[in-house]
Amino acid sequence: MLEARGLTAGYGGGRIIVDGVDIDARAGEVVTIIGQNGAGKSTLLKGIFNMVPVRRGSVSLDGAEVFDQRPDRLLAGGLAYIPQNHSIFPKLTVAENLRMGGFLLRDQRLLVERIGEVEAMFPILVERRDEYAAGLSGGEQRMLEIARTLLMAPKVIMLDEPSIGLAPRLVDQVFQTVRTLAEQGKAMLMVEQNVKKALAASDRGYVLELGQVKLHDRADRLLADDRTAQLYMGARPGGTAPSAEAPEGRP
Ligand SMILES: Nc1ncnc2c1ncn2[C@@H]1O[C@H](COP(=O)(O)OP(=O)(O)OP(=O)(O)O)[C@@H](O)[C@H]1O
Ligand SMILES: [Mg+2]
Question: For residue 41, how far is its CA from the centre of ligand 1 (angstroms)?
Answer without folding.
Answer: 8
